[in-house]
Each structure stands twice: as C-alpha cells, then as structure tokens.
Amino acid sequence: MKKVEAKARKKAEKMTKRPPFQRIIGTIKRIEPLVAGNAISGETFKLTAEDGNEYKLRFCDSWSRARKIAKNSRRFQHILPHFYGREGRLLLYRWVSGTELNKLKHAGNIDKEHYIALGRIYGEVHAVDETVSKRKAKQFFSWIVNGLLKKGIITKEDSRKLFRLYREKGDNVEHKVVLEAQDLAIQNFMVESDTGRILMLDEEGITHRLKGLGMHKSFTKFFDEEEKRWFLEGYNKVHSDDYFTKEYQDFLALVHYARDVWTKARTGRPYDKPLKNLREYLNKN
User: Fold this and answer.
1) Which of 50, 148, 227, 246 is most buried, by CB atoms within 10 Å?
2) Whether the model pTM is above 0.90
C-alpha cells in the first residue's frame, strides 16, 4: 500500500505542475489521491476546483485502456457517473455524492428495489450484446493458470486438470465473451443524493469477459437466495437469463475460483480461502 500511495503522490505532484482539463475545471484547489476503500490502485484522484465543484480523475496506464474506458463511459452514461471526456490517458468524471450501497446494507436499509436496480444495470450492459472471439476467454484462463503455476500456488498436475476441465465443461455449454460488469460487489455502487439513482462507481469494471461471470461471482460471494431472486427480477426486465443454466454456472465456477486466487495473489492479498475453494472444486471434479 505504501508503494501505491507514493506512486499516487508523484502523479498528484505532476498534475499540480501541469493541471489537466483546465477548460472544464478551471483552477484546481486540491488534488487528493484515492488509495483507501475500493480505490486502491493509486490511479484515481478527487479534484476540487476553486469554485467548489468536485471531480473524479482516473489515470490509465495505457492509451488503449484509456480509449476503451472512455468509450464505455460514453456508452453507459445512465449507469456510470457523468463523463466529461479524455485528455490522453486521463479521464474526468463528475464527483458523485451519496450513500454507498454497502453502508446501506450494514445499516439494514438496503431493500428489494436496490437489488432490482442492480440487476437492471447488469442487464443493460449485456443488452449491448457486443461479442468478441471465445479465444479471449481461453487466453484469459490460460493467463490465470500459468500465473498460478509460475508462482508455485498450484502444481503442474493441477494446471493440467484445470485446462482439461475448461475444455470439457466449455464444450458442453454455449459460452461467449461479451461486455461484462465484472465486479458487482455492492461497495462499487452508490445511491446519488440529488437524483436517487444507483450508479456504478467502477468505470473500468465494464470490460470483455465470459458472459455472466460477474453475476456468478456475486451470487457465490455476496448475495443470499432472496437477493439473487431480486437481482434476477431486475436483470430479466432488460435481458433474459435463459443462458444461466446449472451447467453454465458450473463452467463459470471453474473460471471464477481460479481467477479469485490469482487476483488476490498478484495484488499481495491473502488467498488461502479462495485457494481452498479452488481445491474443493478440483476434488469434486
């Protein structure tokens, strides 16, 4: 975390010397790196202008990533915070004031309508139906498994079994890679104060992944049975869940468990629990 904080401070210093988006923001009064809570990458900042207006700025590590996120930010203006535009690898958004859904849940104030709204948001991303080659899914899975093998987290025997299961289970279901909201954890969503809308705060979280992977992750890690029903009620208002069969969920489980271990391992977080889930899955299969 200290390295991330130091990296963020350096970027903030550079922006102080060469302020971005001056035509929109004007004079910047304060730049605050966001390296706590959900914003742990060191790539996001809160900007406060002299006139009191607040903004969120995202720094992208590549031009292609910046263009991709900008494209989705324009496409999903009704889901994401208002997007002002892009300057090179920098993206500017309106700062959202409101209450995070996870705080509502901890206070016991989250209800059916919130989950229906989440389902609608997820369904609207899928409704775009932007499909790319299934090879991307296989490449993604290979990257995960090979990464786990190189780090010594799994054995060669484990990797061979993972690849075999991917082939077998993938051949038994129709799967495709689409635009996907890959992290539906409720801390990534906020009820906006002035409109009451639920907005997704993780603008980089919309990317090409196996269809339904984000939903499977949330159903496995975050939602209880009643919350799942509410979520699917909202989802089915804009997109059918017919594809989300038990066989398909089993295939997604394989990818999800492996990805969960890899995500935590490569970011330096404890991965004992997800590794246990992965090994239990392998033992059952």
Assistant:
1) 148
2) no
Q: What angle do helix axes 112-127 and 225-235 make, rounded to 10 degrees? A: 50
Handedness of CA 143, 144, 150, 156 (dihedral sign): negative
The two tokens of residue 223 are 């939602």
Nearest by Cα to 124 from 65, 93, 71, 80:
80
Q: Which domains does the chain have, with CATH numbers?
A: 2-95 (3.30.200.20), 100-284 (3.90.1200.10)
How confident is the model over 246-256, as pLDDT tens digits?
999 999 999 99
Specify the 3-state DSSP secondary structure of 204: helix
End-to-end, the C-alpha distance of the chain in Å comes to 37
CA angle 216, 200, 175 (to 5 degrees): 30
The tokens of 140 are what?
């993604």
